[in-house]
Amino acid sequence: MANFSVAIATFNRAHILPETLGYIASQTHKPREIIIVDDGSVDNTSEAVELFKNESGIVIRYIKIDNTGPGAALKTAIESCAEEWIALCDDDDKWHPDHLERRSHLIDTHPDVDFTFSNFSSFGEESIKNFDEFNTMPQDWWHSFAPKDIYNFQRLGPQLLPNFLAYNPVFPTSVCLKKDLYKRCGGIDAQYSRLGCWDAHFTWRCVMHGVTACDHNITVETRKHGKNFSKKRSHVNLERAQMLEQAWKDGWIPNVYANDISTAILNSKITALNWAWRDKDHELIKKVGNSVALFDLPGKLAVKVLVSYFLRLIPVR
């Protein structure tokens, strides 16, 4: 069976982190270690971790750094892991007891894979009842892959950047990857650490350089509450477009993906404009609209952009 390190970035979650650590400690297939990087917390996180460590007997390494954002903190955690396989977990999420056992079974079943993820649900005060990520996503996304096996695992294959630009079903808490892949793909780019979509950049690198497989069973749950690290969807999608533009300039994406990148950038801007219109955020509409040609937009959206332009010209009395 595969041996796992667990990488966690945390910030001011002393009241929640022990619950998450409890789910990890209750795994039917235990991890070898848990690496916790504290991203400059000002609460009693260190004491909460020490208390849990003493009570559970789990091998935990606690590292405190200056506040750098969740992406950079997780980068530090991953790069401090010792085992061949690294499992990611957000500091407020939940693993089902068989999460690592099923992931180890998936790895044994498809031994060439080095990037894996699973289906997920949600819990908490703002969760959606019976949420199932794989059921909510476009079902034709799966059509280009080999069918699921008898264990509900699916080998998706290598070089999947276009697929994951079109739709990304990966949530960090469900990810397990090989340390070797992390090194080969360039890892987490800390310059995007504070963006609402920093993890997408990391996923794109992994699926472009690795061999990907997934578990269709729900093995993790994401906590939904008012203090999640998130932003308005309009801003997240604009940041996603800007991140793609920068990734293209940085040169790590081969020219063969030029059309896929252009399409993804345009679609992100279209989504940002739609959410900005819904939020009546005319300044953001102006910002996004200035970076895209009207004739590249769907007809109704182009009209909305023009209406927004004239609304900005009319003084508010």
What's the SSE blueprint?
Elements: E1 4-10, H1 17-25, E2 33-39, H2 45-56, E3 60-65, H3 70-78, E4 85-88, E5 94-95, H4 99-109, E6 115-123, H5 133-136, E7 153-158, H6 161-166, E8 176-178, H7 179-185, H8 198-209, E9 211-223, H9 233-250, H10 258-278, H11 282-289, H12 299-313
Parallel strand pairs: 1-2, 1-4, 2-3, 6-9
Antiparallel strand pairs: 4-8, 5-9, 6-8, 7-9
Helix pairs in contact: 1-2, 7-8, 9-10, 10-11, 10-12, 11-12
Question: What can you tell me about this protein's structure?
Answer:
With 317 residues, the chain is α/β, with parallel strands linked by helices. α2 links the parallel β2 and β3. Helix content is 42%, strand content 18%. Strands 1, 2, 3, 4, 5, 6, 7, 8 and 9 form a 9-stranded mixed β-sheet that branches.
**End-to-end distance, in Å?**
69 Å
Gyration radius over CA: 21 Å
Largest sheet: 9 strands, mixed
Let me know the number of strands: 9
CATH architecture descriptor text of the largest domain? Alpha-Beta Complex
SS strand fraction: 15-25%
Q: List unreliable stretches of 5+ residues.
A: none
Principal-axes geometry comes out as globular
Helical residue percent band:
40-55%
Helix/strand order, N-terminal first? EHEHEHEEHEHEHEHHEHHHH
Q: Superfamily at the CATH H level of the largest domain?
A: Spore Coat Polysaccharide Biosynthesis Protein SpsA, Chain A
Can you count the helices?
12
CATH topology of the largest domain: Spore Coat Polysaccharide Biosynthesis Protein SpsA, Chain A
The CATH C-level name of the largest domain is Alpha Beta
Please indicate the count of domains.
2
Rounded mean pLDDT is 93
Secondary structural class: alpha/beta
